[in-house]
UniProtKB/TrEMBL annotation:
Keywords: Oxidoreductase
Source organism per UniProt: Nonomuraea aridisoli
UniProt-listed InterPro entries: Nitroreductase (IPR029479), Nitroreductase-like (IPR000415)
Start and end residues of each Nitroreductase domain: 9-176
Name of the featured protein: Nitroreductase
Taxonomy, superkingdom: Bacteria
GO terms, molecular function: oxidoreductase activity
Family statement drawn from the similarity comment of this UniProt entry: Belongs to the nitroreductase family.
Signal peptide boundaries: none
């Protein structure tokens, strides 16, 4: 596929993750090797990647994730609750929420869970933390792009962070390393990915001033 096609059709895959087909670790390593080429502040490269394939560990993480999803959905702030005044957008939001609910039920069944982390030797900075997370999140997106190019589906989620301490203890993650994103990874079923509906550019573009 072209670069533009890759960039515009890499979607969060949830219901279409193949939960029965094993994913070779070497394929995951290829995607992570590409992710390490992403920019990072001061060239610190403080990222760490936890690749979880052990069924018991995946189930434990999935249980925490399900608890977090249920709390999130019950709060009324999930995708299905947004844009109620826009009938067309409501349909999209309902599909997103249904897809997210499916992942909430099946996170522990996904064959590979990748957790992107970053070193925080002095703890989390006060105020705007864009400098810190900006050194991890581009690499995570690169991983998702590389996975898409290899026939793998992923989904960007941070709901597990409600139980970050518990998951860190489960996986032996040091206290000075913080989790930033969870990327469930599996082969996907079907291949009908296309650009998603988005706001018109002119509604969000500001030239010189707001």
């Amino acid at each position: 596929m072209t670069i533009d096609e890759l960039l515009t059709t890499t979607r969060s895959v949830r219901k279409r993750l193949d939960l029965t087909r094993p994913v070779p670790l070497e394929l995951v390593r290829e995607c992570l090797e590409i992710s390490l080429q992403a920019p990072t502040g001061g060239n610190r490269q403080g990222w760490h990647w936890i690749v979880v394939t052990d069924p018991d560990l995946r189930k434990a993480i999935g249980d925490y994730y399900a608890r977090s999803w249920n709390t999130y959905y019950g709060s009324g702030s999930s995708a299905a609750s947004l844009y109620a005044a826009d009938p067309e957008r409501v349909k999209i939001q309902e599909r997103v929420s249904s897809s997210a609910a499916y992942l909430g039920e099946h996170m522990g069944d996904v064959p590979v869970l990748v957790i992107g982390c970053i070193s925080t030797p002095g703890g989390l900075p006060e105020g705007n933390q864009a400098g810190l997370w900006g050194s991890l999140l581009p690499a995570a997106w690169s991983y998702m792009l590389a996975a898409r190019a290899r026939g793998l589906g992923t989904a960007w989620t941070t709901l597990h962070l409600a139980y970050e301490s518990e998951i860190s203890e489960l996986l032996g993650i040091p206290g000075n390393v913080r989790q930033g994103v969870l990327l469930p990874t599996a082969y996907y079923t079907g291949d009908t990915f296309r650009p998603a509906p988005r706001q018109p550019l002119d509604e969000v573009l500001h030239l010189d001033r707001w």
